[in-house]
Amino acid sequence: MNGVELRNVTKAYAGITVMENINLEIADGDFLVLLGPSGCGKSTLLNMIAGLEPVTGGAIDINGRDVTALEPDERDIAMVFQSYALYPTMSVRKNIGFGLKMAGMPKPEIEERVNEVAELLQITPLLDRKPSQLSGGQQQRVAIGRALVREPAVFLFDEPLSNLDAKLRADMRIELKRLHERLGRTIVYVTHDQIEAMTLATKVVVLDRGSIQQADTPENVYRRPANRFVASFVGAPTMNFVDGTLARDGDQVFFDTGNGKLPLVDVPAEANDLVGRPMTLGARPEHLMFDDAGISARVVLAEPTGPDQYVRLAVAGAEMTARSGPEQAFKSGSDIGVVIDGARMSLFDVENGKALLHG
Amino acid sequence: MRYNRWALYGLLCLAAIMIMAPVFIMISTSLKSMDEIRNGSIFTLPADPSFAAWRKAWFGDCTQTLGEKCGGLSSSFMTSVQIVIPALFLSVGLGAVTGYSLAVWKMKGANVMFAALLVGMFIPPQVTLYPLIIMIRELGIFGSIPGLILVHVIWGVAFTTMMFRNFFKTVPQDLLKAARIDGAGFWRLFWHVMLPLSLPILGVAMILQFTYIWNDFLLGLTFGGRSGQPMTVALNNLVGSQFGEKEYNVDMAATMLTALPTLAVYLLSGRLFVRGIAAGAVKG
């Protein structure tokens, strides 16, 4: 198949296995984001695809060709680094053309392709400058140009936007997405920033401690997290978690924390099977709704962010965050009624954290 | 505050005078005639400055020939140049390549080899002089310019390797990864990426090696033989010769002539030298 396939990839350092039996299919044209906290193995995985680090076991295919034993330059890949990694002594033109020159392409052809890419990225006026004369955003553009010019089967991005300031990061994010939609190339992109993952990816792979927690569309990773780790890692502010049991009182379903009963509305029918079993309720801030008929919650603190407000609530013996519009005024210490949207909540096993049910 | 400043300038001036006084006396004496030297103080300025002593030091005095030469330093200057140029480029070039391979390419035993090089650097040359003589003799180039060049390269390469290795260690990993992905192998990574990066260090290594080799006396005396006699050895012969009257003006001029090339290198490359010393990690 076209794209990238990892088959039972294992990685060990000095006899200690850090990754075991990673299986992953990246379809042709996918924008796959490897997401996880630092040390989760996402960069190691990317380096193994690039051929910069050898695999201990398993195999990697790129466009149907087993590249496990090949050098990075023979794998038909290109990579963009967090630190840009431009050659400091070369002009932008030479930086972009270096890979082609190493591949032995004739000069006029290199010139033509460099110009084409520069045009595409709007860096033509910068071609004769040195990297040190460029801003961070311009440097990153050049680094992307250096990858584009090789027209590889797969683009690898290693946290490419992490060194940019917030505004520029948002701009470059849009540009990357546009570039992907325009060129339709396969991209593997490493980041710890879930916003990047959600906005850019066609498929997100959440990693933790060297193993894949979930591989799915961004919508599903957010909406139907496979376990508590994914649920807590994706989403900001983070999902609220409360331990307790599902309880039923006539038509009304509650989540009983032992210190109070959180009313759930629009609970799916499957939840009936889980009544009485100890579990963890996961509810994102936008799934807490203010309703006078609900349980009484005390406002601890309100954080206005501009478009939204995040309200810390003390409720049923736990602290939870709720989202609200900017209009409503919350007074610290006042009480307010709260219900939880059962149609969008998640329930997790207390022991292993696996998702039991998504509303 | 102001008094501190004066004290500082005073101290600096004192240090400058202490260092420059001998140089001043040398230059002044070299411009005097022997009569003036015999009858005056060494601190007085030359009454009638003349470059006669400098000419004699350089070309020699062909009325009292020593063998086929006239005894001047000009011929040994050329010998020194013949020794320094190849020894300089070989020791710096080799050091750049070995330093690069030790820093960038993870090979087995690299650390052990680097440690051995370091130890080699701290052993005084006198200790290994005799084994080195045997080695060079067995190679059949003892007492010749190539033999002396080889010894200088052997001695220099430990130092230059360390300099380049330490510099290349500061090159960011991502840059090396990028070059690997671009398909640059051992030599092309070295030539296109690493060597251009190391220009400041290259400059410093060249300057220091030039100075060491040019100023060397012991190795030149031991390994050069008659045909490979560098300027320092010739200077010693000239100054130390016991025939007739001691010609202080010629001795001073000859010493200045011998020191001039290294002085010129420092003066011309001072800025580069400081920049190289201060060159830290490459910005990512």
Question: Overview of this structure, please?
Answer:
The complex is a heterodimer of chains A (359) and B (284). Chain A has eight helices and 20 strands. With 359 residues, chain A is of the alpha+beta class. Chain B has 284 residues and is mainly alpha-helical. Chain B has two domains: 49 residues, no CATH class; 205 residues, MetI-like fold (Orthogonal Bundle). Chain B contains 13 helices and no strands. The longest helix of chain B is centred in the N-terminal third of the chain and has 31 residues. Chain B is globular, with a radius of gyration of 23 Å. At the A-B interface, strand 6 and helix 2 of A face helix 8 and helix 9 of B.
Q: What are the main properties of this structure?
A:
heterodimer, A: 359 residues, alpha+beta, Rossmann fold, OB fold (Dihydrolipoamide Acetyltransferase, E2P), elongated, B: 284 residues, 2 domains, 74% helix
Question: Secondary-structure blueprint of this entry?
Answer:
The complex is a heterodimer of chains A (359) and B (284).
Chain A: E1 3-13, E2 16-27, E3 31-35, H1 42-50, E4 57-62, E5 65-66, E6 77-80, H2 92-102, H3 107-121, H4 136-148, E7 154-158, H5 166-183, E8 186-191, H6 194-200, E9 203-208, E10 211-216, H7 218-223, H8 228-233, E11 240-249, E12 252-256, E13 261-265, E14 278-283, E15 288-304, E16 309-315, E17 318-324, E18 335-341, E19 346-349, E20 355-358
Helix pairs in contact in A: 2-3, 2-4, 3-4
Chain B: H1 2-30, H2 34-39, H3 52-59, H4 74-104, H5 110-122, H6 125-138, H7 145-168, H8 173-181, H9 186-197, H10 199-215, H11 218-223, H12 231-240, H13 248-278
Shape, per Cα inertia axes of chain A: elongated
Q: Report the top-level CATH class of the largest domain in chain A.
A: Alpha Beta
Helix content range of the residues of chain A, please? 10-25%
**Unreliable sequence segments of chain B:** none
